[in-house]
Amino acid sequence: MTSNSLEKIRRRLKVDALLFWSLENIRYLCGFTGSDGALVVTSQERTFLSDFRYEAQASAEIGKAIFKKYRQKIEGVAQFLGGLRIKRLGFEANTMTYEDYRRLQEKLSKITLIPLAREISHLRACKGPEEVKKIRQAIQIASRSFADTSPRIKPGIREKTVAEILECRMIRRGSQKTAFPIVVASGPRAALPHGVASEKKIQEGETLVMDFGACFKGYHSDETKTLLLGKPSAQQQKIYEIVRQAQEKALKAVRPGVKLREIDAAAREVISRAGYGKYFGHGTGHGLGLAVHEEPRISPKGIGVAEEGMVFTIEPGIYIPGWGGVRLEDVVLVKGRGCEKLTMLPKGLTENILIF
């Protein structure tokens, strides 16, 4: 997001300054990687505010932004804003707590606080070359770690053990942390879209959904594999192929200018026509970057169109209570007349059957 883009937002909303509270947006706009602070953007400058713990770190990271130190966050931010002699302040409504908002408003009685949500939601949607490079590295770490882990998946091993092995491999390969709690859900638990690994033992004949991601220099990966443990049943093969075809159709729909809803509809139509529409209850994808879930949203309610530089997931699924589920997820970069698939693990049926 360039200074000109922020200035356009400021002018369109007729605010004198913008206050950023989320660490992802602060990192994106000034480079700070610590765990607390606030950023104020005016037409003249960017000012990052934090306490003494981050003074040295901020001076090394925030480039041309100015650093201001406070003792207490709300008091320090309010004091600084009060000294700017501004009348209208735009702030991140979807990241600031109500208590912080109330206290800030109380101390800035002469300033009108303008809540911003949708107006800045597009802030990080389109990625630059360096951002894409970091996402690629996170994907590479996760992919190689999965390849290290998959030979360990045998009947009798616990879901938690598989998750622990995968997490250990990702950390050893350079991931700062896991992007989110690793999903390892087998058998009936595969019907849980976010079935975080449990003590359950994996059994032959089950489906196994694994959703995992690495984090490299703040940027995340996100990929889901569904494994068929042993010779698959006719129903397992059928549902897997429906999901694979739904994902393939959605991937082919991605191109600059296409409505986000149309990408979702492409996947949803395949699953609905096969009679499993009620078992696909989430959106087809989400943006990926400094946060695991960010703009754009690929869903029936998705707003806007795909733009060159956007990075998002394509992850249709079918989840049948009591039976299990199948989800396939890849990450794409919108470019040229279509998209580039950044994730690299195979999603074909035969490539995901484990024979013991």
Return the CATH architecture of the largest domain: Alpha-Beta Complex
Q: How much is the radius of gyration in Å?
A: 23 Å
Question: So what's the CATH class of the largest domain?
Answer: Alpha Beta
Number of strands: 19
How many domains would you count in the coordinates? 2
Classify the helix fraction into a percent range: 25-40%
Query: Biggest sheet, open or closed, and with what strands and sense?
Result: 6 strands, mixed
Pick out the low-confidence regions: none
Shape: elongated
Q: What is the CATH H-level superfamily of the largest domain?
A: Creatinase/methionine aminopeptidase superfamily
Write the layout of secondary structure elements.
Elements: H1 3-12, E1 17-20, H2 23-30, E2 38-41, E3 46-50, H3 55-61, E4 66-69, H4 73-82, E5 88-92, H5 98-107, E6 112-116, H6 118-121, H7 129-149, H8 159-172, E7 183-186, E8 207-212, E9 215-216, E10 219-220, E11 223-229, H9 234-253, H10 260-273, E12 285-287, E13 294-298, E14 311-314, E15 317-320, E16 324-327, E17 330-335, E18 338-341, E19 353-354
Parallel strand pairs: 1-5, 3-4, 5-6, 11-19
Antiparallel strand pairs: 1-2, 2-3, 7-8, 8-11, 9-10, 12-13, 14-17, 15-16, 17-18
Q: Would you mind describing this structure in some detail?
A:
With 356 residues, the protein is an alpha+beta fold. The chain has two domains: 3-121, 3-Layer(aba) Sandwich (Creatine Amidinohydrolase, Chain A, domain 1), CATH 3.40.350; 129-354, Creatine Amidinohydrolase, CATH 3.90.230.10. The chain contains ten helices and 19 strands. It has helices at 3-12, 23-30, 55-61, 73-82, 98-107, 118-121, 129-149, 159-172, 234-253, 260-273, and strands spanning 17-20, 38-41, 46-50, 66-69, 88-92, 112-116, 183-186, 207-212, 215-216, 219-220, 223-229, 285-287, 294-298, 311-314, 317-320, 324-327, 330-335, 338-341, 353-354. Strands 4-3-2-1-5-6 form a six-stranded mixed beta sheet, with helices on both faces. It has a four-stranded mixed beta sheet with strand order 7-8-11-19, with helices on one face. The radius of gyration is 23 Å and the shape is elongated. The model has no long low-confidence stretch (mean pLDDT 95).
